Amino acid sequence: MERQTRSMQRAAGRRRGERTASDEQLDLAAVAGRNLTAITAAPTSFEIVNAAYGRQTGDQLVDAIDDRLSGALIEFRSAAVRSGATFTIVVAGDAQVGDAAVDAVERALEHPFAIGNETILLGARIGVARMSGDEPLEHLLRRAAEALAHARSSEGATTRIAADGTGVPLAALAADLHRAIERHEIDVRFQPQVNLIDGRIVGVEALARWHHPRLGEVGAETLLAAADRAGLGVALSDHVQALALRRAVEWPDALSRMRVAVNVTATDLSRTPFVSRFLARVHEAGIAPGRVTAEVTEGAMIDNLHAAGTALAALRAAGCRVALDDFGTGYSSLSYVATLPLDYLKIDRSLTQAAVGDARNRVVLQGVLGIAEGLGLETVAEGVETDAQRLMLAARGCTLYQGFLCAGPLDDAGLIELVRAADAKGEQAWR
Ligand code: C2E
Ligand code: CA
Ligand code: CA
Q1: pLDDT computed for residue 46 by the predictor
Q2: Which mutation among 177, 238, 263 tests ligand 1's pocket best, with the greatest number of atoms within 8 A of CB?
Q3: Proximal ligand: closest to the CA of 299
């Protein structure tokens, strides 16, 4: 890693939200050629560090990671760049060299960091892609980023190697997607959100699925990546949101008050006029705005916090609610929670699950729940898979959960049946 570039990145990274070119461009002079490995690495639950130790420590930690990675890669011909707390590294050399670099990155991140008086042990997720054929660099980087996304959403393995260019061809998927919407191949599933006090299903999150004619069911992450690639992100969002809201209107009486949460992307939010388009979709579906929640990630708001805040306030003024999604991932801080007009804080699966086994993570979770309560926000814990997790969350004042313990994403019939069965059980309990 080249010194000057790094210090420039560092200055840029410190002032979060003020991204500059140096933060996003890769100096590739050192790694020309076709024999490249791309590695993206991100600490897990970075926000936990920010919440537990403060932003300054978080910034120092990113700098320390930066130093450690550059030390680890000094023997390699490499270029690196960082965006927030995510590092992207390109290494020149054959596959063996690439593997050695991945090893070096893994080893660099597995030891604790000493920042001030604190000793911080980080987890990290790593995505790796190896250049194949005459693949453009941009494509290689995208595959590494996708591998990181997979590593983030999977249990266990922390390093993911992307299939080579001959694996799942995103370009082909992107081409297929052009017709998928018209052909009704894009569908939504609904995952229940459960009240932690009385066990009632009070709402659902709508999650996109693609029934691909040849490949079978394609998951949300791949679908979204293909849509971005095809320039169809906005069309897909419109379609999925409208579909989810229309479906919810058709549910039987027993579900007629069920809340419906739809995901809103950074692109959706930055597109004007976001608010009137969103509300038009609500209106067209004929659903009461009071049943609708927009789920937004912090990442979607970094570029223009003020505009995002205004948009979210307008949705709330119209009766919709707003959830901050995936809290506990990425580079973020509690100050967002205090500033933005929100109703729910969704606690990411990584934090929910870490808190069961580990006392320090439990303290952080407790802190997050306490702050949410103090600000009058409801909390939705994601990725709840066991009774132990559910009980731990309930005891700490978390209000709702979502996870396989109740159900994964369901089709309409599955959801209706589940709610009916739960209601029947509730009635029996009364008698
Ligand atoms: P998310 O918003 O955090 O959604 C929750 C994801 O976690 C879903 O994956 C869900 O199936 C999975 N999940 C739920 N409960 C559990 C659990 O107990 N354990 C584990 N291990 N996983 C659980 P899915 O459907 O693959 O969605 C992945 C991500 O893709 C979503 O994360 C969301 O960010 C995005 N996404 C999904 N559908 C849409 C959509 O319609 N529009 C947009 N913009 N994004 C979407
Ligand atoms: Ca979500
Ligand atoms: Ca989430």
Answers
A1: 76
A2: 263
A3: 1
